[in-house]
Amino acid sequence: MTESPALIYPMAAMFAWTFLVMLRNVQVRVSAVLRGELSNEYFELFSGAEPSTTVVKTGNHLRNLFEFPVLFYTVLLAALMTGISSETLQILAWGYVALRIGHSLIHLTINKVPLRFLLYFSSNLVLLAMWLKLVHVW
After folding, report:
1. Is 136 left (phi over 0), alpha (psi -120 to 50) or beta?
2. What is d(CA 123, CA 96) in angstroms, rounded to the nearest whole number?
3. What pLDDT, in 10s, does the model give residues 74-114?
4. Which residue of 32, 91, 100, 127 could cross-link 37, Cys pair, CB 3.0 to 4.6 Å?
C-alpha cells in the first residue's frame, strides 16, 4: 500500500470543514421550519417570509465555501497530478485551511466584518502564493 501524498490532507480537512458548515446550515434551516419562522415553501424559490439573520448567514457562508476554495482544490489537484509538491506548498495549503476555518468561525459567530475580511483577504493571498508556487513563479 502506498502512502497518500501530503497534499491530500489539507484538501480532506477543507472538505470536512465544508461538510460541517453544511450540517450547520441544515440544522439552522430545519430549526427555523420547526419553530414556524419559515415554511418549507420558502425554500422552493427562496421567497416569502424573511428568514432570520442566522439562516441567511449560514446559507451565504456555505455558498462562500464554493467560491474561492474551488481554486484551492484545483491548485492542489494540479500539484498532485503533475507531481509538484514541496514543504512550502504543504505549509501554504494548511495555512489556507486555517485561515478559511478562522474566517468561517468569525462569520458564523461574532461576524465582525474587519476581522472577517482580514482572514478572507489573507487566505486569498495564500491561495495566490500557492498558484505562484505551482507555476514556479515563486
Report:
1. left
2. 5
3. 999 999 999 998 999 999 999 999 999 999 999 999 999 99
4. 32
What does the alpha-carbon distance between residue 90 and residue 74 come to, in Å, rounded to a whole number?
14
* pLDDT above 70 coverage of the chain, percent: 96
3-state secondary structure of 136: coil
The contacts of residue 69 (CB under 8 Å, 6+ apart) are 14, 18, 100
Q: CA triplet 95, 97, 100: central angle to 5 degrees? A: 105
* Dist. CA 51–CA 32, nearest whole Å: 8
- Residue in 61, 63, 52, 62 with CA at minimum distance from that of residue 30: 52
Rg (CA), the chain: 18
